[in-house]
């Protein structure tokens, strides 16, 4: 399974703001609308970097990509333990993980970013997602 490197977002903008973006694109400041939006988001994230870093630490979040394989969850089950998953970024539960195994080994799951898992696993963990 290839892990995606981005997530698609939909943004609604007023017509005047959209026109201003198009003007900046037309005049060569940005290559396209997406380039402008990505740059604006990065600038805001840079502005608030310290607050985000403090919150990441306070909430004990793993930063980046975290993948949970069937073998990982089987080892947790064998140890008679449960996971409290806390990820800022992308959490992936492998496609071959059965819903019952996920439910028996994951006590809670908090993902700020994106969670990629089968529909069955997401349904099985719905009451544990925050």
Describe it for me?
The chain has 130 residues and is α/β, with parallel strands linked by helices. It has 2 domains: 15-47, no CATH class; 53-128, no CATH class. Helix content is 45%, strand content 22%. The chain has 6 helices and 3 strands, in the order αααβαβαβα. A 3-stranded parallel β-sheet has the order 1-2-3, with helices on one face. α4 (70-78) packs across α5. It is elongated. The two termini are 25 Å apart. The mean pLDDT is 95.
Largest sheet: 3 strands, parallel
Q: Please compute the radius of gyration using only Cα atoms.
A: 19 Å
Shape: elongated
| Share of helical residues | 40-55%
Order of helices and strands: HHHEHEHEH
Beta strands, count? 3
In short:
By secondary structure, this protein is α/β, with parallel strands linked by helices. It has helices at residues 15-26, 33-47, 49-58, 70-78, 99-105, 119-124, and strands spanning 62-68, 83-93, 106-116. It has 2 domains: 15-47, no CATH class; 53-128, no CATH class.
Salient structural properties:
22% strand, alpha/beta, elongated, 130 residues, three-stranded parallel beta sheet
Write the layout of secondary structure elements.
Elements: H1 15-26, H2 33-47, H3 49-58, E1 62-68, H4 70-78, E2 83-93, H5 99-105, E3 106-116, H6 119-124
Parallel strand pairs: 1-2, 2-3
């Amino acid at each position: 399974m290839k892990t995606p490197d981005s997530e698609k977002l939909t943004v609604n903008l007023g017509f005047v703001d959209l026109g201003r973006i198009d003007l900046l694109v037309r005049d060569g400041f940005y290559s396209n609308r997406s380039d402008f939006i990505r740059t604006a988001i990065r600038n805001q994230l840079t502005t608030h970097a310290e607050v985000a870093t403090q919150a990441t630490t306070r909430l004990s979040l793993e930063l980046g990509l975290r993948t949970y394989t069937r073998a990982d969850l089987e080892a947790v089950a064998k140890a008679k333990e449960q996971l409290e998953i806390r990820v800022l970024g992308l959490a992936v539960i492998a496609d071959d993980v059965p819903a019952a195994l996920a439910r028996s080994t994951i006590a809670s799951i908090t993902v700020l970013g994106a969670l990629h898992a089968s529909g069955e696993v997401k349904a099985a963990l719905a009451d544990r997602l925050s």
